[in-house]
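Hi there,

I know you've been waiting on this one. I reran it after we fixed the sequence typo, so this is the corrected version. Both the input and the resulting structure follow.
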Amino acid sequence: MRTSRRNSGRAAILTVVLSVAMLAGCAAGTEGPQPSPSATSPREAAQTDVAPLRGLVVPKGTLEHASIAAKIDNHPLARPQIALDRTDLVFEELVEGGMTRYVAVWHSDIPDVLGPVRSIRPMDPDIISPFGGIVAYSGGQDRFVALMRQTPVYNAIHGQPDTEATFYRSDAKPAPHNVHVKATELLAEHTDLAAPRKQFNFAADLPSSTAVRLGTRTAVVNYRFSDYSFGTWNWDAPTSAFLRSQQGAPDVDANGARLSATNLIVLRVPVTVALDIPKTEMIGSGEAWVSSGGATVRATWTKKSAASTIALIDDNGVAVKLAPGNSWIELIPLAGSVEHTAPTAG
């Protein structure tokens, strides 16, 4: 078996999660600069790790647990979602009808509850495979579920015997937009799963990130998946983050927190359609932009296989380094659009 329900395993992982949540709460503030790998002494370095999905320095051993990826609903009836403000990474992808859904990944900060989750899609195995760990979703067409089950990821699916205690429907929203996951309890059942590996390269701090050092100043990033799904990211200097809006309105989590990103990564991707289901083609390469610290650098993205991470290389042929913090990845179809706007003078 790949799971363990022993009380000792549950207590251990919940202790780790609580300590990570406390650390993440401190890291989310804007009182001052965050610790960085370059700021630690050799003795301190021996007592710390670098969060693989955020690039932040954390106490050693606090992140030795699996990540949870989840297929998060982005239908208007599903908003505001739960715990999107606590993610390490979020991928936004095109689905049917011009709408989008998210693949959200939590590792540095595991929430008690996340959701609502929806069904899997054909591009999700290529997005989620590099993380390992757990993927939570509500089901899907047999052919897509079979693809997801073939990956090195534990499939936690609503309605299955192994998720009876950790998935539930809420009365707060109408079905099918109301399936939620008890994330800390789900993680506690899978203490044998390994932590994710590093997905992107990180600089020591925000000023050292590639976009800040080499990029052009950026105040606004407008993106469009379709006539139905579009939005804006606005640079906010006081929080050192880009703030998210959808369809002209601020995008918030269920607790009222504005969704934001330290790093905004835009990938231009081909989208194929089979039996009316769009598939974002993630194996290949294309144009990309990386925005951090109110600046943007152009890059090329490459992903060689389902298990490979996404490589970001700037126009000088050098790997892009993100700022330590969370990241959103917009998978914009070639038929969509993206526009980066510089700050106005004055």
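Quick highlight: Residues 1-38 have pLDDT under 50 and may be disordered.

Best,
R. S.
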